[in-house]
Amino acid sequence: MGRQTRNRRPRPRREFSRGRRILLIVFIAVIGVTYALTRMPSEIGLDEDGLVVLHNWLNGEPADSLADVSFRRCGRPPHDNCVINGDTFYFEHQSIRIADIDTPEINPARCEPEAQLGEQATQRLLQLLNNAPFEIETTGNRDDDQYGRKLRILTRAGRSLGEVLEDEGLARAWTGRQLPWCD
User: Which of 12, 64, 88, 101 has its CA 20 to 30 A from that of 50?
Assistant: First the structure.
């Protein structure tokens, strides 16, 4: 014998009242702001007028805390204080593109010589970042590039780390566009 089915009425859909929806939105916003503030590489302070100001190394202020940071090669996310390639690294979960240089690509490289030189540039940047404290400075009129990386100049004792890589033949000055590294 087959199963008997009863005519069931669909259950009425319960909707949140307007007050509950607003409360839910406020709750989600508070959680989001709290999360952002705990993940943000910033110090919160007050300016002369008592307004909240974020003092952030991404805004070009020297970062005294860099003396205690060590960098490694990036692996799987999350990325924190690691080197992607010869001109890109992460510091406190923020991707930074060294603005004054271009280095060979390693992933994907277009030819074997580019891959080898790109690997050397990556290793050398890792050494330079770990050797001694450096400063992260803003440059030009753009804060970030098309990929959301912060455009910054790295200096140590007044000298650009990008220039160091250039002098060693591992990078070239940034011309505003990538040029090929393969013949």
Answer: 64
CA distance 160 to 58: 17
Which candidate, 78, 93, 95, 96, places its Cα nearest to that of 40? Answer: 93
What confidence tens digit (pLDDT) does each residue in 15-29 have?
767 777 888 788 787
pLDDT tens for each residue of 138-153: 888 889 898 899 999 9
Among candidate residues 77, 79, 73, the one with its CA nearest the CA of residue 94: 79
DSSP state string for 121-157 = HHHHHHHHHHHS--EEEE-SS-SB-TTSPEEEEEEET
Assigned CATH topology for domain 62-173 = OB fold (Dihydrolipoamide Acetyltransferase, E2P) (2.40.50)
Q: What DSSP character marks residue 96?
A: E
What distance in Å separates the CA atoms of residue 96 and residue 88, rounded to the nearest whole number? 6
State residue 46 phi and psi, 5-degree precision. -115, 140
Residue 180: CA count within 13 A, CB half-sphere: 5
Q: What is the DSSP string of 13-38?
A: PP---HHHHHHHHHHHHHHHHHHHHH
